[in-house]
Amino acid sequence: MASPRRMDPELPQYTNYVVSRPVYNEPSFLEQHERQLRERQTVREKLVKCCSCSRRRAIRMLKSLLPILEWLPKYQVKEWLLSDTISGVSTGLVATLQGMAYALLAAVPVGYGLYSAFFPILTYFIFGTSRHISVGPFPVVSLMVGSVVLSMAPDEQFILPSTNDTLDNITRIDSGARDAERVLIASTLTVLVGIIQLVLGALQIGFVVRYLADPLVGGFTTAAAFQVFVSQLKIVLNVSTKNYSGVLSIIYTIIAAAISYGVDLEKKCNAGIVKSIPRGFLPPVLPSVNMFSQMATASFSIAVVAYAVAVSVGKVYAIKYDYAIDGNQEFIAFGISNIFSGFFSCFVATTALSRTAVQESTGGKTQVAGIISALIVLIAIVALGKLLEPLQKSVLAAVVIANLKGMFMQVCDVPRLWRQNKIDAVIWVFTCIASIILGLDLGLLAGLLFGLLTVVLRLQFPSWNDLGNVPGTDLYKSTKDYKNVDEPEGVKIVSFYSPIFYGNIDGFKKCLKSTVGFDAVQVYNKRLKALRKIQKLIKKGQLRATKNGIVGDVCATNQGFEPDEDPEDLDIPTKEIEIRVDWNSELPVKVNVPKVPIHSLILDFGAVSFLDIVAVRSLRMIVKEFHRIDVNVYFASLKDHVIAKLEQCGFYEDNIVMDMFFLTVHDAVLYIQSQVKIQTVQDPILKKINLIQEYKDPLELMDTEVNEDVLDVQDEAMRRLAS
C-alpha cells in the first residue's frame, strides 16, 4: 500500500516553538480564565422565537417549502435551456422504456409504469431540492412494491371456476380482476409510503437515513439486483434476447417491437407481449384505506429505502456541482409526489441511477430537464401507446436486467472494504445474504440491526493505550506503537478511546488492570491479610510494633511463615496507628502481596465524549481503590461537559477533588514530578495501617532502642522492612 503523501518535508519557519505557561489543573485555570456562562433559553422563549413571524422569515420559510421559488427566478434561459431540452428528451426516452420495464417488477400492467414515470416529476419539480436526479421508478423499490402486491393478490385468488364444457385441465385466471386489484394495492401502498415520508419530513427526521450506511445500502441493493435478475429471467427465456443499455436499448426496443408485430410472435411463438396500454389518463382513484394495516410494515421500509436511494444519488451530484440538498425537504418532496401520484394509479417513485446519469451526462442543469422528460412520457401515454402494445415483455425484462449492471458491480467493493475496514465488509456481506434469504424487507431490517450491533460492540470493547513521553516534548504516544518514548518513573498513563457507560465499564476496569499490572482490590486484600498475620505475631511477642515500624524479637521463632489460616479466625477489632511499611520489600509473613511499582495513575480522557451515572460511580470507586494502596489518580484532558457531568452525578468527595483534573497529560506529569521532588527532601510518608488487637485496650507502642551490633539476620530484615 502506498504511503500517504506528505506536505513539505521541512518546515524551516516552524522547526521549533516554545510555550511558557504555568502547570494548570482545572481550579488554577479557572482562577485565571473565567468561564463564560451560556445563556440558555427557557421553553417559553423558544416557543416565542419559533412562533414569531416576520416578513423575512415568512419568505425564507416559503422558499424552504417551495424550493422552486429560490432557483427558478435565477434560471439562465440562454445558457441552460438548450442543455436542459436535450437532456430532457434523452431522459424522457429512457424513462418511458424503464417505466414500462419496472412495471413488471411491481406486478402491475406495463402501461401503469408510464404513469409512474410521469406524475411524480410534476410535484418534485416544485418541492424538490436536487437539480439533477430523475424522479420515477427504481428497480429495487419496484421489486419491494411487487412483493407486497403479489403477497396480497396472488393468482390463486382469481382462478375462474371450471365449467362442464371445459374438457382440458388448464387453470384459467381472471386477469382483468387480478390486474385491477393489483393496481389498487400498488397505488394504495404508494399513498401510504407518501404519507410516511411526509410525516417524517414534517417531524424533521431526515437524519434516519444516516443509519443506512454505504456498506449496508451496497449489500442490500446487490441482493435486490439478484432478486430482480431471477424474477426477470423467466420472462427473458421466453424469447431469447441480448441485453443492451443506454441509447442502444431504445433502438433495440423499436426494432424488437417491429419484428414482434411483423412476425406475430404472440400467436406463433406464444411470446408474452404488452398487449394493452391505456391511452390517455385514467380518472383519480381513492386508495383503499382498509389495506393500510396489512402493508404498514412494508411501507415503512419502502419509504426509507426510496428516500435513501434518492438522497444518496442527489448528494453525489450536489457535491459535484456545489449546491446543498435539504434532507428533510426531500422527505416532504417525495412524500407529496407519492401521495399525488398514488391517486393516479402509480407505484412508488424515487430515482434511478442510470436515468439520473443520463440526465446529468447529456447536459441537464435543473429540474426543467425533468419537466421536459415528463412531456416525452406524456407523448408516449397519449399518442404512442398503440405502437408499444406489440412489444415483447422479454425485451422489457432484458432492459431491466441490463440496468442491473451497476448494482452487480458493487460486489467489487467488498475486497476494498475488507482492506480498509473489515467490519464494513462484514456488514456488506451480511446484509446481502440476509436480503437474499429473508427477503428485502426483513433483510434490510436484519442488516440495519447488525450494523447497529457492530457499533455497540465497538463501544463495548473499545481500544486503549498506555502512553509514554516523547523525550524533550510535551507529546505522549503509545508505548506499543513507538520506540523512543519513555514512561515517567512511577507513573502510568492510560488513554481510553470511547465514551464510558454501563455497557463498557467492565472493559474499562479490565484495561486498567492490564495496563498497571495489578488489581487494586486484590492488593488491598493481600495487604490486609498480611497485617492480620503480623498482628498475630505481635500478640505472641515475636514482633514488636514501634513508631518507627515493626521489629522482630531476637529470641523468638518467626511463625509468620506457617501455612495460611482461615481469615475468619483473624477477625479482630482494629486500631489505626502510624508506622512505616515498605510493601515492595520482603515481608516477615507468608503472604504473597503483589508489588505496586507506581505511585501515580493518569487517566487521559481526551477521547471520552460522555459518561453515564454508572460510569461516574465506578470511577469514584476506582479512585478510592487506588488511594487505599497509595496510588494517586489524576485525570487529564477532560471536556468541559464531561467535568460538568461528574459534578452533576456527585463525583466529588473528601479525597476526590477538582484539583485532580489537569488540562493536559503533560500538566499532570509535571505536577507529579514536582510532588515527588518535594517528598524526597522530607520525612518518608507514614503509612496508615490497621493493627488487629485481640483486646479492646489499645496496643502499647514501644520505643525500645535496638542495638544494631547484636541484631541477627532476621532482625536486620525486620529493620529493612520498617524503614
Automatic annotation (TrEMBL):
Subcellular location(s) per record: Membrane
A GO molecular-function annotation: secondary active sulfate transmembrane transporter activity
Sections of the chain in a coiled coil: none
Entry annotated with the keyword Endoplasmic reticulum: no
Name of the featured protein: Pendrin isoform X2
PANTHER family with a match to the protein in the record: SULFATE TRANSPORTER
Membrane topology type: Multi-pass membrane protein
UniProt domain STAS: residue ranges: 481-672
Residue intervals passing through the bilayer: 102-127, 133-153, 183-209, 215-237, 244-263, 296-319, 331-354, 366-384, 425-453
Organism whose genome encodes this protein: Phascolarctos cinereus (Koala)
